[in-house]
Design brief:
The complex is a heterodimer.
Chain A lengths: L1 H13 L16 E2 L15 H8 L12 E6 L2 E7 L6 E4 H7 L17 H8 L5 E5 L9 E7 L4 E11 L4 E10 L5 E12 L4 E9 L3 E12 L4 E8 L5 E4 L2 E4 L5 E10 L4 E10 L5 E10 L3 E10 L4 E11 L5 E10 L4 E10 L3 H8 L5 H13 L8 H17 L2
Parallel strand pairs in A: 1-7, 2-6, 5-7, 6-8, 7-9, 8-10, 9-11, 10-12, 11-13, 11-14, 12-15, 13-16, 14-16, 15-17, 16-18, 17-19, 18-20, 19-21
Antiparallel strand pairs in A: 2-3, 4-5
Chain B lengths: L1 E10 L2 E11 L4 E5 L6 H9 L5 E9 L2 E2 L5 H7 L1 E4 L6 E5 H8 L7 H6 L9 E2 L5 H15 L3 E5 L7 H16 L8 H4 L2 E5 L13 E6 L2 E6 L1 H11 L2 H10 L1
Parallel strand pairs in B: 3-10, 3-11, 6-9, 9-10
Antiparallel strand pairs in B: 1-2, 1-4, 4-5, 7-8, 11-12
Helix pairs in contact in B: 3-5, 5-6
The chains are: A alpha/beta, B alpha/beta.
């Protein structure tokens, strides 16, 4: 109780604390999004437009090939369903805290409430979100899908998620974040605390599909135990005002592994500050950070950071940025830090235009310049993300085709 | 098929080709010899229209049309195809997806990929981590599916092991003869080619019609390609230069 009080006090003090990076949003400019909504039992009963919004971020309304589905509209949970209940447990955080006494031990432990104003306000609002647990040894065959949707204009959405993948379990999660048609301005604050236990595997794919005046401040920390594997895919291809995220993976057990892929396109007026950080705290841990970003006129800051604190650590960081417009900016900031002797950390970073030689190589095979650029861009952004629905693939292809046209 | 008229080319302000005149008739296979740095590759790159090869004077006529200022794409559409020495690494572009696009005419590439032992490369990024011989086989696979009327080959046999050279040579032969067996009709059915070779190995598979020797960006002489190759093997290019000097 003392703990909670002191956390609350700290959070209150942090309400004005700017984040280290990114545009400083004034929380008072946004109305706190509603905590009430009607429950949608069947997502296929939604309007065609709303269903398309879901599909475009990888959420399948008929829940085919999904082991569970969770939808949050503004600040309220509007849908929860589980198909594979032996392998996956899925509910709101508020329900989980009521049901299990131990959930509080996972709540606000990796992310500090007073990290910045965004974490502070999410903490103080006692935000809801999803709780996903894969019980020990269980392997779900299909991914869980979760959707965080902003449905009203000029509001701030606060979300707090917890995922626990227990010993030897395997789980795939697809999270899609978007706005309803017509919502142009808003703020999305999302706290995620992810626990991958001994020998467990989590494949986490996040698709962002925002609107032109949306500010996005995800705060994610992942804790990986011995021989655990955490794969993270982050995709944001559509216009947005500002995304600033710096997910951090703590490799705390021997042999733990993580790979983080970030795919982003910065359109004119967009700022993408996409980082990823891995802290190697246990021996023989490994990590790969891959960032592929494109600017068609916006600003990209690709941060990658690896801190090695144990022997036998191996890590590689790859930061590639394409510049398809002289209005755009690409800044790559790789950071490597070794604090013990037996460590191999490396990085390669490259920013610039598509090599003329590559375009002409394809043109010599009979492709138009537009087709050639499209093919190179598609290849550039393809890091082999599995399990995304055809509708999302089509939407990605459409975006890439538009980028190809703009690049000429 | 191809007429090169008084072609002078610069790369980054440096003159690399100097008043080249050279013809390739329809259905004929001509060979380019010459020491390293003579400008042979630059000539093929210029013919395909790649950036960086600046035509200062002269013209390139292909199928009766002046293509000197056409884009690479337009030249490819007209039926010109190339296998370069050092194609770029195409990170992210899978060989399979490229072949899918090239074969929009519906031709099946799997069979040829099997012949050239390239099936296991179909889902790899084009040229990335390929060995010298693998690059040649990949290029030839793409070029065969593209099926151009005039083929520019830059040292197709270099870096290829003795076993693969047989596959490669017969595939080149198939590509160039276009299935026509009748020598008398090849003007109408066969393809035209301009081939750079150092070793002459490719001549075991291709019945070359005419050879040219290129030195210092100029055509020194032309003649029977086999006789020329024998001379080069015994006397080297020094004799060519001396010979030319005598005429000056």
């Amino acid at each position: 109780m003392q703990d909670e009080l002191s956390l609350k006090k700290k959070a209150e003090e942090a309400l004005k604390k700017s984040a280290v990076y990114g545009e400083d949003f004034n929380l008072d400019d946004y109305e706190i999004a509603s905590k009430g909504t009607k429950i949608t039992k069947d997502l296929t009963s939604l309007s065609a437009e709303d269903q398309k919004t879901l599909l475009n971020v990888g959420i399948v309304p008929n829940e085919e090939n999904r082991s569970g589905t969770f939808v949050m509209l503004n600040n309220a949970v509007s849908h929860t369903s589980v198909k594979q209940d032996d392998a996956v447990e899925l509910m709101s955080i508020q329900d989980a805290l009521k049901r299990y006494d131990w959930v509080k031990d996972y709540s606000w432990k990796l992310v500090k409430p007073d990290a910045d104003k965004y974490t502070a306000t999410t903490y103080l609002q006692n935000a809801d979100g999803y709780f996903i647990r894969a019980p020990a040894g269980k392997k779900s065959t299909m991914p869980v899908q979760t959707c965080l949707l902003i449905g009203s204009k000029d509001v701030s959405q606060t979300v707090h998620n917890i995922i626990v993948v227990e010993e030897g379990a395997q789980l795939d999660v697809i999270t899609g974040c978007s706005t309803k048609t017509g919502v142009e301005k808003g703020l999305h604050l999302g706290i995620s605390e992810i626990y991958v236990k001994k020998g467990a595997t989590l494949n986490f794919t996040m698709i962002h599909n925002w609107a032109e005046q949306i500010g996005v401040r995800p705060r994610t920390v992942v804790h990986v135990e011995e021989d655990g594997t955490y794969i993270n895919n982050y995709v944001s291809l559509k216009p947005v005002r500002s995304i600033q995220t710096y997910p951090t993976v703590l490799l705390e057990g021997k042999g733990a592994f993580t790979r983080l892929n970030s795919i982003g396109v910065a359109h004119p007026g967009s700022e993408l500050d996409l980082g990823s950080k891995v802290i190697f705290n246990a021996p023989d841990t490994k990590a790969e950070l891959i960032s592929r970003t494109i600017t068609t006129g916006g600003k990209v800051i690709a941060r990658g950071e690896m801190i090695g604190n144990a022997n036998g650590v191996k890590g590689h960081l790859e930061c590639h940025g394409l510049v398809l417009s002289s209005e755009g900016t690409q800044r790559a900031i790789p950071i490597l830090e070794a604090n013990v002797e037996d460590i191999e950390l490396s990085h390669e970073a490259a920013v610039g235009r598509i090599a003329r030689e590559q375009i002409e190589y394809l043109m010599a095979r009979g492709l138009t310049e537009e087709e050639a650029v499209g093919m190179i861009v598609r290849g550039f952004l393809d890091v082999g993300i599995q399990g995304i629905p055809d509708e999302l693939k089509a939407s990605i292809d459409e975006t890439i085709a538009k980028i190809g046209e703009k690049a000429l | 098929m191809l007429e090169i008229q008084n072609l002078t080319v610069e790369i980054g302000g440096r003159r690399i080709l100097n008043g080249i005149n050279l013809n390739v008739e329809a259905g004929f296979k001509n060979v380019l010899f010459g020491p390293n740095g003579a400008g042979k590759s630059a000539l093929l790159m210029t013919l395909m229209g790649f950036t960086g090869y600046k035509v200062v004077t002269g013209k390139i006529i292909f199928k009766g049309e002046d293509i000197t200022n056409m884009s690479v794409y337009e030249r490819a559409q007209m039926g010109l195809g190339i296998m370069t020495q050092r194609p770029p690494n195409m990170s992210g572009v899978k060989l399979r997806s490229l072949l899918d696009v090239i074969s929009k005419n519906g031709s099946n590439y799997i069979e040829l990929a099997e012949t050239l032992d390239m099936v296991r490369f179909l889902d790899r990024d084009v040229n990335v981590g390929f060995s010298g011989g693998e690059i040649k086989r990949s290029e030839l696979l793409q070029l065969s599916i593209q099926n151009p009327d005039m083929v520019l080959l830059d040292e197709p046999e270099s870096g290829v092991d003795l076993v693969s050279i047989e596959q490669l040579g017969s595939t080149i032969k198939n590509l160039l003869t276009g299935g026509s067996k009748c020598a008398g009709k090849r003007r109408r059915h066969g393809k035209s080619a301009l081939i750079i070779t150092h070793t002459g190995q490719v001549l075991d598979y291709v019945d070359a019609d005419r050879g040219f020797i290129l030195c210092n960006g100029r055509v020194m002489c032309s003649g029977n390609p086999r006789e020329m190759l024998d001379d080069i093997k015994t006397k080297g290019y020094v004799e060519c230069v001396k010979c030319k000097m005598n005429y000056l």
